Predict the structure of Deoxycytidylate deaminase.
Amino acid sequence: MRFDGSLEELKKKLEPLASAGEWREINNNQHQFKTKSKGILNWYPSTGGILFQGKAHFAQKLRASVEPLLNTEAHNEADGREVSRSADEIVAELSVEDASENTYFIDDTYSDSELVIGLVGTIGTDLPEVSKLITDRLKIFKYETRNIKISADIIANIGSPSQSAHEFERISSYMEEGNRLRKESRDNSILALGAAAQINKSRGKQEPLRRNAFIINSLKSPAEVQKLRKIYSDGFFLIGVHADHTRRYEFLTKDKSMTKEQASRLIERDADEREEYGQHTRDTYHLSDFFIDYNGNSDSLKKQIWRILDLLFGKPYITPTFDEYAMFMAFSASLRSADLSRQVGAVLTKNRCIISTGANDVPKAHGGLYWPDKDEVTQEITDVADGRDYMKGEDSNAIQKRLIIEGIIEAVPEKYREELAPLIKNSKIKDITEYGRVVHAEMEALLSSARSGVSTAESDLYCTTFPCHNCAKHIVAAGIKRVVYVEPYPKSKALEFHSDSISLEKSSKNVVFEPFIGVGPSVLSQK
């Protein structure tokens, strides 16, 4: 479908649908109309091309609604009252999502659309193998795949990385160049924009390319993910690839001939650099739409990728595993948190039944956490004054940390204060959490179960963030046998303090802490 007029002319022609959605500018050459039912119209002024995206059922409805409005001759011949009535019906259809529609993405109507797939994994993860398996599977759907490697295709073209034969020096140089490009542009998404430019260049005059998928390997900053989601909307997916530390370490030392010290330095640097424009793979990973595990078993990796693509292409009867369902519920639980720093959710399960939920928030008298309630006098839904931290307007933990730092600085001779102040502020003091009023989500899940008289022994805990060391000791004492998490929490000393009771190995007799693998909550919420 094409429209060769101006944006204002297009909006005027589609005015009968205006109340069913909203327009937004993705970039200079892409304008998007997204309906409340998540049908999407993309218009590209340079070519006049129009592409429909979104859930197949609603993409079809949107296409069927747009076609007669752009066909001026047919539109003028219709009876005015009939057009008005039909427009009202169409708006109603596009505004309400059909609960019976359970395919997420693509059927025959959408199967020739363009896909952009981002990969994220810590250094030492075999992402090329993941790209290969995605490429092979997409051939079944008659897709042509193009790989964009951020290091070789973007950084090497716009920067000046070292081409050293030694892998440690070469990789370190690419990291430095990536950091420099982000810093000089003051834009942490600059490399993602480079990838988008590559995609645009490969399109030529055809926008977008039919039955084409672009695999971007790999993303290192949350800003890159946000930018690609803004540009490609529902056509972009992020796949997080997990590989255990031992496997990544051996890959770097054996396959890449690095020393043990060099491998450890790269792994630590890649996970999270302190500088604003550095590598932040850890923070990027948990934004994934899908999480897969590569433990060296190629067949297992292949089956995980097949399931993801089958889901995207609308294969019926792909429903969540219990792990996926439980983690979705943990993310749902986090929505009730009003914590000033981060929102965390947790659910406790036994025999594949959810027995309690928890979120990080302030406790209230007689048990549980604060909920907003309706004021019977004003009829407004409000929070209790001085209840939650945001109502008090302060974070007690932040206040106490500041007082500790000020106390130390005042105890130091005045001539050293200016020099020592930033060192003290950036010390381990900043990781203290014990002065907060908030009950952590994992603890609230345990306490909620206790208040109901349900034993926590031999249960599983799903939490959106890796438990802190304070929660970890209570998890061990409560008899939890397994903990599943999405977002790492670098401040946690759980493994260091409780190595006798906690393990990352699934075969261990200790409490197993393992990363979530499967379809992420962000995808299930749209299913």
User: Anything to note?
Assistant: Residues 120 and 219 are 5 Å apart (CA to CA). The longest helix spans residues 167-185. The two ends are 27 Å apart (CA to CA). DSSP finds 21 helices and 18 strands in the chain.
